[in-house]
Structures are given as structure tokens and as C-alpha cells.
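Q: Start with the shorter request: fold the first protein.
A: Done. Sequence, then structure:
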Amino acid sequence: MKQTTFLDKLSQTILSNSAIELANCLIVLPNKRAKVFLLESLKNQLETTSFAPTIISIEDFIQEISGLRTIDSIELLFEFYEAYLSVTEKAKQQTFEEFATWAKTAIQDFNEIDRYLLDPNHVFSYLKDIEALKRWNLEPSNTTKLIDTHLEFWAKLPLYYESFYNHLFKKGIGYQGLLYREAVKNLIPFTATITNQIYFAGFNALNQAEEKIFKHLANENKAKIYWDIDEIFLNDSYHDAGLFIRKFKKEWKPFVNQDFEWVVNHFSEEKNIEIIGTPKSIGQAKIVGTIIEKIQSENPNLEKTAVVLGDENLLLPVLYGLPESVDALNITMGYPSKNNPAQLLISKLFKLYTNAKQRNEKSYTFYYKEVLDILNHPLVEPYCKVEEVVKVINNNNFTFFSNQKLFSLYEEKYPNSESKLFQLLFTRWDDSISDILTNLHSILLTIKSYLSNDDAEEKVTKAFVYSVFKTINKLTNYHETYNQIESLPSLQAIYKQIIDLAEVSFEGEPLSGLQVMGVLESRVLDFENVIITSVNEGKFPAGKSQNSFIPYDVKKELGLPTYKEKDAIYCYHFYHLLLRAKNVWLLYNTDNEGIDAGEKSRFITQLEIEKQPKHNITSTIYNAVLPEKAYEPITIPKTDKILTRLHEIATDKGFSPSSLTNYIRNPLQFYMQRILRINEADEVEENIAVNTLGTIIHNALEELYTPYLNQYLALHHIETMETKIDEVILKHFKEIYKEGEITKGKNLLAFEVAKRNVFNFLQLEKKDIEEGQAIKVVLLEASLSCEIEVKSLPFPIKIAGKVDRIEERNGAIRIIDYKTGKVLGNSLKINDFTDLTTDIKNEKIIQLLCYALMFENHELKQNREVSAGIISFKNMKNGFLPFGLGKGKDTELAISNQILEDFKAELETLIVEIFNPEIPFKEKI
């Protein structure tokens, strides 16, 4: 049997009254969205063609009675500022940014006072007295300037209200409350002009002005009122869903010449209610997609299905989570602009240009992160081809650069192409506010030109762009009309204030496909399948948000709505969604901590406790599927292609000592770097990385020592090197770190550290020469290699690498490896070769012995004794730290043929493992 909706019932009632022509009916509904659904319902029940009735929202109806026009919250703020300036002496006038911080709250309070027809002077004097009492009603002699200013503000509120009210009234515009107050004043003359039959349908909570209007028109037989309440809520004096309608039923009887209609009995009917808890919001978005897939498998038509978002921020995750099979979709809701991608782009542009001006107004210096943030933004990146520019910024460590430099990089990489969007985004913002707003206007229009009307995703993006476009237009109009914005920081502050008031409005084709809506948009509508998300305290109901100057007890005293009434409104919406639904899914976040967390809503608990006999309620908790093991190490089997690549490395470039130690550390890392040749992506090094600093010191020492190769070092050589430290370090910094900033901050410290390390090294050298040691540097940054035969492999294995320094010292050869980190002497000593190539702590020993092995057959060896060791720049006082085999005094520091043979045997074991097709590359964790 087809379920009769509230709008169907309303249509039947209106059409059954043959005394009144349909075209002479005026139907007033709580929101605009229901109009299309009501027209559809009337159309389905009409047997002949007829002119449609007038169907309007309550806001439009009030506008008609008052003869005034409502304006949006941003325009209101600007109008209020104009009124404020007209009644405030120049010396005490606040800037718009300061004014906006309290004006938004004041407008909300003015609105409430007027909607509830309160005497504003009474309310404001109440507030002023409360503030004075908070200060113990101090005598004038005991107050401070701050207290005086504070109390003066409260004393002036009636003046602000009056001037604002009159200012708007003269212009024929107003905020909602002002229109309500004026509508009540015009009620009697308006009643005399009514020729239509008025129907008020589907209302719940009414303010004082609405009550007055409804009662008056009903009493004059000009209007009929149709409620939509279930007897369970109406008859239970504690149920918040019936809080307001119970009151109206009780108090309105003498004023309304009509039976109380309609009390229905749908809530107790059979319903399947599934309560699903899942951690985090994103989990809910995924579950919504799964539920819709399930509904579609039973009935592909989704017109009777609604997704109601308790938290509007979930809109985008839900849209991305919908299955591909959803071909028709209607979104009707307001989306908070703080998460609007177009708004985020404009905010990033403000940040870029405000900071650029503060850094250096003349050269207009950009910071690379802010530039990359814009270039990688989803509204810019697909339409502004700049991959090469981003690459150059990353590779050359551009940290700060001028906008001219950015344009020259673009021209260099894309010589014959001109990107309008790139030009608009990075053209310098001067002091002209009009030019800045025109530029933002052009950016949004250019982005819009790239978006298609055929793609559903791009339609949503267009709605985002249009929302910000309207806000920028309003800012432009305000600037042209009032000329109050004088600087970029001021424009940015105003933009921040008004963007909070701007919402992205989505409007689609209401009668086709899946309906996605906010809670308020669901009023009057009925669906068979209802999915409600974010049914958590603080979201549904919204909870105690006290954004008002009027304290709770004063609101209670004056009859203004408090959070208690707001909770009751949410309660009605919640239960109305369930009223005629057959299948209901209630999703909530199980996390009690975090930004969007909160305990399960009281509405779910109430449903469970007051369970109706025919309700089939099930509760499920969905958790992410956790594997038995937190992480399974990656294993790569050695295929023929991998073995071919290993053969190529072994016989061509060779295995370097660091690649062998890399294998010991983590075979997967070896596989990535040597087999697949994958290196880390280049990113801007804002602060010099440790390995970059090491490279700079290595290169500087190579340049300083090269002129003295193959000659015994003398003190005057070292002294000459000392004079060149600054120049050589700076040169290598610029070569390696390219455009990176080294004149301040951490990088300046790193620069000084590099100079100090080289200086300390030269002091060590000086001391050794003074002690009479004969030092001759024979090789610097030398490329060495050797081949070793491995019995089980049919080809020799090449070991190749670069040695930092080889010197002759007192007739013996010393192989030196520089380390910028801290190395202790004990870490280079071993008792024997057991487990040498299985423990990563031996990596430095393996490197040193590889160097010794490679040098073994070098022409410069000439049967001399060889030792190998490390000079650690963070352990300079201990000087040269040699490799040693054995314990205590018996430690052997010279690397004999026997040591090399034993090491070679260990190396062979490692190489055999690398080439063994049975042993995969297994990640070490």
C-alpha cells in the first residue's frame, strides 16, 4: 500500500474544497524546498488542468506583509557599520574589523528581540544593569578606563539598535526580525486586502510574531492551519517533539475557528531502524555509500530515499562515497564556506600577498611553501600547467624569491605559452583595493571558464566558486559604496569576518534521484528510506552554543528561545523524518575524542528506551578491519629480470660499500634504490639536511687540499688553507644548496658549523705536523675498484666506491673516511669476523675494509703497511679512529693480507645471499 505523505494529505484537503478555486489558494510552508514537492503532489491528484496555487515560504509571506525586503547577513553587516558610524563620534569609531567582531552577535540579538516582539529598551537596560552589577556597581571614581568603555558600550546598544532599525527601514530593507515586527504592525491593513484562502502547513516552532499573525488570520477566517504531529508525541507531556504543538493546541483554541488538524498515527507503524556506530566521520560517509548500494539492489529508483546530514561538513565525503550507480542526485543545503575549496584558495592568496608585503614591500618576496600551496591547489593545478616550475623550485632550494623571479622561471620553462590563470594568480598586488578585488574577480571567472556543465563533480565545484564570487562582489560593492577599506590587511580582515557568514547554496532537480539535504531542508517532506548521519550530541541536537549577548536567565525571563527550545526543534525534525519512513539508518561517530566527536545522541537512546512494539531496531558497530598483524613486511621474490639487473650492477658499475651496507640494513631499501633505481623525490630543503652539510664539508676539504697533493704538508700550507675557509665553504654552499637562504636562521648556524668543522680539522693537522709527523696526501675523493671471484657465481663481482682521502703518514698508508656525525673509536673494533655482514652496527667497518680491499692492488700501495679509519667531526679531539681486530693491547691496527682474506670470505657470503634466487628481498622492520 502506498504511504500517504503529509503533502499528499494537504493536496487532497485543498482539492476537496470545491468552494475555492485552486488558483485562489495561497499556501505557506516552512521552507522553499517543499514547494516543488507540493506542486507535484497536486498535479498527481488533479484530473483536469488548472492554474497552480501560490506557494511561498514563511519568509516570503512575512516579506509580503511587511512590504520590506530581506538582505543577506554580509550586506547587513555593512549597513550596520554605516548606521554605527552615523551615531558614533569620530574619535571613538572602530575599524570595520573591530566592529564586525561584536556586530554579528548584536544583529542576531536584535533579530531575536524583534521576532519575539520584545521592547528593545527594556531588554538593553536589563543587560546594562547586569554588566554594572558584575562590576559591583562601582562609583565613577573607582572605575578604570576599560570598565568605563565597557559599560558605555552597553549603554549605547539601544542607540545602535534604533539607528540601525531606522536606517534599514528608510531603505525598505531589513533583517528577518525587523520584517516580522513591521509585518505585525501592518497585519490589520494587510488582512483587509486578502482575497485568497491561506493555508499554513507543516509548522512546528513559531516565534511571537508568527503566533500573532497565524492566530489573527485564523480568527478572521482568512487562514487554515494544518500541523503534522503524531499522537505519541502530542499526548506525551514530556516528549520534546510535541513541545510547541502541545502549547498551541492548548492555548489557541479560543482564537482559531478550526478543529486541531492533523494528529496522525504513523510513528507506531512497522519500521526497520538500524543504528550504526563507526569511528570518525569518514567512516559514516563510506557506510552511506554501502547503504545506498543495498537500497538500489532492491529498487534502482532512489526518489523515495533521503540522506540527511547532521553535520553539513560531511557533504563532500558523502558525495565521494556514493556508488557509481547513482545517476541522479539532488543536493539542497547550505555548506559552510570555511571548507569551500574556492574560499581556501582566496585565503591562501591573501596570506601570500600580505606576507610578501610585510617581508619586503619593494622586492615583494614570496615564500616557496605559500606559492606551492597555490600551484598545487585542486582549482589551480589541473588548469595551470606548471610542473616544470615546481620542479625547479624544489631542485634549486628556492625558499624566498620575488614575483619577477617566479615569472622568469615560468617563461624559461614555457617560453611560448602564456597562462592567463598564472598571470592573475601571481601579478603583484599594489595598494589599490579595487584592483585587488578585480583581480580576485577575474581569477574566479577564469576558473569557472575551465569547468564544464556536463560533469556532475564540476557542477558542485561551480557552486563553490560561485559562492565566493558573490562574496567578492559584495566586498567590491561595499568598497565602492562606502570606501572604508584602506589597506590589504584591512581587506583580509574584513574578508575573514564576512566569509563566515557566506554559505554555499546547492540547488538541484528536486524530483529526481537521491535527495541529499541538511536537517532544516527536510521539513514537511516524507521519505520511505531515510539515512541520517552524525547523530551525535553537539551535532544532532546541536547543543549549547551561546552566541548571544543576552544571558540564559534573561532569555528565560523574557520568553526568548534557549538551547532547550532549540533541542526541541531538532527533536521534532528528527522524529518527523522517522514518522512515515519504513527503513531508517542512524549513523553516529563512536569516537569520544577529537574535533568532530561526541557521545551518541540522546535521540537514539530515547528511540531504544521508548521502543514501539512494531519497531525493529538493530544496533551495529562498524570498525575498520584490523589485520592480525599490524604490518606484514614486504617480500620481493627474485625473478629472472631482477637477477639480470644484479648481474648488470656486479659487472658494470659494481657494488659500492654503502649499497652493501644498505642491503644489510634493509634488503627492500637496496631493492628500491639499486634494482628499481627509485630515489627520494626532490623537495625544497628549507633547513640544510645533514647529508647536504656533509657533502659541502667533503667538497670544501677536497678543494683546500688539492693544490698540495703528493707533497709533504708544511705549516704554511695549513695556514694558507685557513685563510680560504670562508670563501671555499661559501662557494660549495652555493653549489650544493643552490638558491637556499644561508644568511639567517638555522642555515646560517649550519654555515658557521661547516666553517668551524673545517677549521678544527686543520688545527688537528697542524698539531700533527708540529709533532713532527710526515704527512703526504696521495689521493682525494678517489674512485677505486676491485674484482673478487665468488665460487658459486660464473662471473667476477666488482666492488667500487669513492674514498675521501688516502695519505702517506710516516711511511705507512692511511685510508680516511670523513664522517660529519659522531663516531666512537670502540665501534670500529671487532674481536673476529663472526656475523660481520649480518649486523648493521658493523657498517662502518665493512666500508673501511672495502676501501682497503679496493686499494690492495693499487700502484701507490708499494708493499706499505695500510690502516683504515674515520675522522669524526663531532669527535675531533680523538683524531683518527682506526679499524682494529682483536682485544685490548693485542688489537691489530694494520690491515694485513690475512684480515683482507677473512673479510673477503665474509663478503662472498653476503654476495652469495644477494644473488641467491631462493632468498627474496625481505623488508626489515
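Q: Next, the second protein, separately.
A: Sequence, then structure:
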Amino acid sequence: MLAALLIDANNIVAMERFLAVMWDGKAPATAVRQVQDAVSGLRRNLAACGAPGPLISTRRGGYEIHLSPNQLDLLEFDHERRLAERHTDPSETAVALRRALACWRGHALSDISSRALEIDAARLNEKRADTLKQCLAIELGLGRHREVIDELTALLREHPYDEHVAEHLIVALYRCRRQGEALQVYERLRRTLADELGVDPTPPLQALHQRILTADPTLTAPVPASRPLDIPPQGPDAAAAGPAMAMPVRQLPLDVPDFVGRAEALAEIAGLLDGPAPNRARVAVIVGGPGVGKSCLVTHAARLASGAFPDGQLYLNLAATSDQPRDPGLMLAEALRALSIAGSAIPKGLAERAALYRSLLADRRMLVVLDDAGHADQALPLLPAANGCAVLITSRTLLTQLPGALHIDLDVLSPAEARELFTGIVGRWRVEREPEEADAILDCCGNLPLAIRIASGKLTGRPAWSLRVLRERIEDESRRLAELRIGDLSVRASVELSLRLLPADAVRALSLLGLLGAYTLPGWVVGPLLDRSDAEEVLDTLVDASLVRLTATDAIGQPRYRLHDLIRTCAVEIAAPLPTADKRDAIIRVLSVWLGLIGCGTDRLPAAGLLAAPPGAAPRRSLPDAVVDRLMADPVGWFDAERDNLLGAVKLAVDWGLDELAWELAAGAATYYDHRCLYQDWQHGHRLALDAAEAAGNVRGASVLLRGLGQLHIYQDEFDRATRALESSLGLCRDGGDKRGEALSLAMLGTVSRVQDRDDEALERVEQALTIAVGEGDRHIEAQLSCSMAVMKLMQGKLDEAEFWFDGALSHARAVGDGHRVAVVLRRFSRLHDRRGDPDEALRCLWQALATFEELADERCAAYTLLEVGRVYAGQHDRDRASPALERAAGLFHRHGDRQDEATCWQLIGDLDAAAGVHHLAHQHRGRAQRLWRTIGDMNQTKFPARPSSP
């Protein structure tokens, strides 16, 4: 494990890499847990050895060890090599390279037995050998031929096919007046190449042999350090001679003529290819889902950069998504043949082929394209070690095990790029003639390049079709995949290729995820879908396969995931053969967790409990306590993050005929909607669930939802609709024996009566509700209704009785620890203090209440409080203080659609303007109030002004 971390120090090492290193492809079921335990033990051991702080950190999908060059020999080696590259003086370069070589003690990873590390060990040993070759060549050029002979001899023994080493050894021996030994080295190399590879020495080496035979005097003196090779040009073509192919390799596929966009990705690739060469080949991995355009991008980028790689461009299709993925050994044989190595000259073993491949590319500047790689082991043997080369890899799977690679996550086209591609294929005149149809087609394609090309191809082959014809054929989601096919191109087939690479549990997870709808989801949903507690690995598999997209991290730190619409459609098709009962059970498990989380979040919201009904018969499931605590550390933030999913869960329950879950999910979110004044979401969710509850004859659910809608209509000044909903809810509660619901419905009807000046009726309803609440022992409702009684007594001028009820309401609210209710009572209590001629006490109550509401981010209650502040100042004829408070309150009421209270604010401001003699402003503000009241009157078929809904 430590070796795997150190080889890729300061880079993320994926969990899959650890499994391969530690178990060589035979990992047990508990392997992930064992890795986690091993990392913990390693951290403890490092700390016990005096490590300066935590060296190993957890990263997405793996771990990373953080080390400086002086803490690890490999990093120090690379550091010294980089320093050597910066020197212009050959002597200084040689010194730096010797310092780099001093970091080595034998072969890399010599005491570790792991097949997965063999390639890394070979790469590191090759890097050391290349460094030694470079150093010896420079020292030979500096005239140190006697000193380098022993090391060159040992190096040639290690690398018997390396003509550069042989060349340098021959020159060194010749300069030491050991001509016979130099010729023996040449002859041994010639026989080895002929017998084992079936080739002759390269022309430069043959020319060196001839020069030794003729005692060429130019060989006796060192050449300048700028030319490390000791062989002068022999003719006009000699400078180009070397271990090169007969002609450069030019294997790149044809570029896409209508390529569009991808400017950011192209810039990243160009920056990698044009940047300074590190001590290994530059590698970029372009990762993306089916049909996203990975191969098109890489081909286009490779052709743009081909001029920077004069020795050629090698293209290898690894075919990971086909029925028969290409074996890396066969791919190496194909690459060697392209590099002019043929027949028996191609070694038999994978390691030998990889070594020969790296040797052939060592002094060349070549671009290698590996298309459709399935896993790192398929690509690793094909990576050159030479820093003059670069590699571009496409894959549907994250290849985090490739050391030092740049990963580019490719998504669908932007809307503008998608339209440009569509227009370029179909023709501008057709698109301009039906622009809305074009937008609809692109929306159905989800801006996926493959889908756009198929749709465009259909239109190109059918010039008589209007765009509307195609739009009508693909807008039906159940037919879309069948329509998005032309010739061998098919979106469905492209997705199915990815599915072949997945284990069965990942395919099942994908199919069930498709049933959840077009939403951005938190990662925990996969667990209940599969009924597994360890589903994170399955989700990671889908993300790594680019079938599920990690879109962002939300405000509370949750990763968010989404399926592309066309992949989701494929997923639904995959789920179709599954037993309906299995799919229904999976949906119930997910919705049960949503319901449990909504309940936990509601319990932690201010003023929780009055709108939320007691649990019904729907099942509830819980995530682990630690997860719930983390999610609910900021309950409002969690609700905000999951706002779309709150409605999505209700719709999903309705679609699957789960009426009990539907009404509980809708009603459970009401407290959040109330807190955030999200009236549209509130109404939409309640209407969806109410239709389902009524269709199923679910009396309890219908009564709760009607009551929630009644409260919503009161907030929106729709009092006639509120009355109808609340009276229906009241009747259902009485029929079903729901005393708590009956009390709440009566209390809300009392609010409507009070606002519409039916004081006696309002008082009667509040008294009935209070009697029920006391009988049921519900202290929360009792606190609310005691405050309502106080308000009614205050309106009747019975100040002492009002004080009695206010004191009782405060006592009840404090007893149950409801700070929000305490603030509401204080706000309304301020009216009594003001009526008694004590505005200072009234303002003290209001400022205390306002502080609570602002702390809880309850804008609507803050607005009611500011309205009361304005009233108190207005009573003192203090226009300078009253108007700002009233204007701020009016703005809040306007934002939340409360026309009644907004009108009251403007009327008060107008009255203050008139008293101050500012008649044009008075006319303006009073006119605004009158227009609002007329709007309310039209909605409720009554005449206003009326009292505000919250006095």
C-alpha cells in the first residue's frame, strides 16, 4: 500500500489501484474496508515515527500522500533531473544528473511482489537507465571516456538491444586505445540483433564501425558538449539518421469537418502538449459518457497539434466497449509493426514488448492516441517513457490510476454549440424557418452530440421533412430512442456498449435511478434503491463509467448527481423487464427516506409543528444518525438544496399510486414552504397529493392537505377559496375523529372571519378550537389560540382580558420551548401596550420579536413586526421613523404576495404624508393601497378595505 502511495506521491491514488496492488485482481468482498483499515494503521505508524503532521489525506475515490522532495527519493530524483534540464553548462548538467542517480539503491520496488506494480517498477527503472545514459553521454562528451567504460558495460549488459549505449561504449573504448574491444562490442551487438530480432544495426552504428576500422582521427577528440553523440555527420542525410522508422507514422483518423465548440477542452489539451515536458510522456485522459464526442475532440486536437510531433502520430483503438476489448499485448504488437518491427523481431511477452516500444520512442517526438480505453491496465503498457512524446486517451471510465495524467471531464455541448452543430448539418435556411422547432429538437437530444448528429442526419436525408415532423416523432420519450437511430448510429446502442462493462448491481442501480425522474439527486438515494448500506461503491462505478454525472456539490456539502435525459430514458427501458413489485418496493424505500428526512428537518425549523400533521400510515426509513445530523446541521439549507426533489418525491408517489406517501410528503414540506414563503411550490405539491388522496378515498390525507391549502389561501388574501378549503377540511376531520385537525381548521376559519369583520363568528370559532386543544392537551396549539383569544379581546376593547390571554400564551410558548411562538405573542402583545399609552414597552416587545424573526430568517413575520413598529411610530406622529419601517414591510409583503398587508402599509404611509402636508405623496401612496384593495375585493367578491390578516 505504501509503495502505491509513494509512486504517485502528491497525486490521488484510486481505491481500484489499491485493490489491484494488494490483491492482484482477486480482491475479497471486504477489500475496501481492509484498505481503509490499512490506511488508518499506516497513518498511526507514520505519526509514531515522527511524521510532521498528517501525510495521508482522503480524496474522492482514493487517498493521497503529501511529501516534499527531501522526504522521498523518487521526488528528489525527479527534482534533480529538472535542475539538470535547466543547466546550459554540460559539466553542471552532469553533476546534477549524478546527484539524481545518487538517490538510487538498486532496482525500484525490488522487495515488493505485486503484479500491478511491475509496470511501475519497469517505468522507474527505465527512467533511471535513461538518466544514466544521458549522464554518461555528457561525460563522454566532456572527455571522461576512461571513467564511463565500466558503467556503460554494465548498462549494455542490462539493455543488450540499446544501440545508443553500445555506440557510446564503442567510442569510449576506442578513445582508450582499446580498438579490438570496441570492435568486439559491435560484433556482439550485431549477432544479438540478427539472432534475436532479425534486424541489422542502424546506419549510424554501422557508420561508426566503419570509422573505427579506418581509424578516423575525428573519433579521438571529444566533441562540444552541445553534441553529446561522438559521431560527426557523414553526408547531407546523415544528420537525420538514427534509429528511426522508414517513414513517419501518420495514423490519425480523418478530422470531423463540422467540429464545433469545445474551446476550453481544446485549450487544456493544447496547454499540455505545448507545455514544458516533464520527466515522462505527457498524458491527457478525456472522459465522458456515451455519445458525448470524446473521439471527435481528441482527433481534432491531435490534428491541430500534429506539427509539434514530427516523428509521427500513432492511433490505437482499444475497443473497450466492444464485444472483444483489445489486449494490450496485441496492441503493442500493432504499434511495433507500425514502428517497422515485424515478424520474429517482436518479443513474445507483454513486458518485453512494452520495453522495446518505450526504447523505440525514447528519442522521438510522437503523439500517441489511445481511443476507447476501458481501464488503466489496458493503457499503461502503451505509455511511452520519453518526455518528447504525448498521449491522448479517450475513455468512458475514470482512469485515475494513470500517474500524472491530466483528466478532462467532457459534458454535452452548450446550447449555442449544439445549435451551431445542428445548423451546420441541417442548413441555416431550414433552422431559421422553424427556430422554435429546432430548439425543441435540441432539447429532446439533450445537446448530446451523437443524438444531434443522428437527428440532423435524418433531416438531411429527408429534405421534404419539416423540422416539426422530426420534433413530433422524438418528443414522445417512449419512442425517442427508437427514432434516434440512423444506419449504424444509435443512442441506445451507444449506451448499451457502456453497460457491458458494468457489474450487475451497477446496471440495476442505473435502471432504478431512471425511475426517479429528471432531477439532480443526492448520492444516498442509491442505498435505499438497492436496499444496501454500502451502495457508495455502486454509485462510484456509475460515475466512473460516465453514466451518472457528478454535477456539483450543494451548499450543505452534498455531492449532486444527475442522469442525462437520454441515458435516463435508456435506464427506464432497462428497468421495464424488472418485476413491478420490485420496482415499487424500491420507490417506496427511497420515498420513505425522503419522508423521514423531511420530518427531521421540519422538527428543527422555527415554528415547527402547527402546519405539520402527525404521522400517518406511510413507512419511514432513516439514514445513519451521523449522516442525518450532518444533513440537518442547517435544516433550512437542506430544504433549499432539495427543493426540486420535495415536489419530485410527491409526483413520484402519485405516479406510483402511493397516496399515503404522497400526502405525507406534501404536508411535511408545508412548514418549510411557510418559512420561505414558497407559495407556488406549496400549492403545486398539495394539489398533486390532494387529487391522489381524493381519488383513493384517503380522508385523513385530504383533510390535512385541504387545511394546508386553506392557510395558503389566507396568506394570498384569497379568503373565499380559503373558506371553502377549510370548511371541507373541518368536515373531514369531524367525520374521521381528528380533534387536532378540527381545532386547527376552526382556528384558521376564525382568522378568515376576523379579517372579514365578522368578530363574533371569529371569537366563537377560536373558543371552540381552544376548547378542543385544551381537551387534547396540545400545548403548542393552546399557545397559538390563547394569543388569538387575546387579539379578539383586544379588538373588543377588553384590555384586561386581553392581557390575561397574552400572559397565558407567553407562558405556554415558553413552556414548550417555542421561541418563534414567543416572538409572535410579543409582537401582538405590543398592541395592548400601545393601546394603554405605553409606546416604549410596545417598541421593546417589537424589537425583541424582530430580532428573533431575523435570526430565524422568517421574512413574513419580520414584515408583520415592522408593520407594527410603523403603527406605533405613526401613533406618535413620528413620520421619519414610521415611514422607513412601513416601506420595508411593504416591500417584504409585496415579495411574498401579501396584498392585504402591503395595502395597509401604503395606506398608513399616505396618512402620514397627508398629516405632514405632503399631499402629492399622500395621493400616490393612498392610491396604491386602493388599487391593492380593489384587487383583493375582485378575488373574493367582497368590498374592502379590511383588517390585515395578522394584526
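Q: Describe the second briefly.
A: The first helix runs from residue 2 to 7. The two ends are 69 Å apart (CA to CA).
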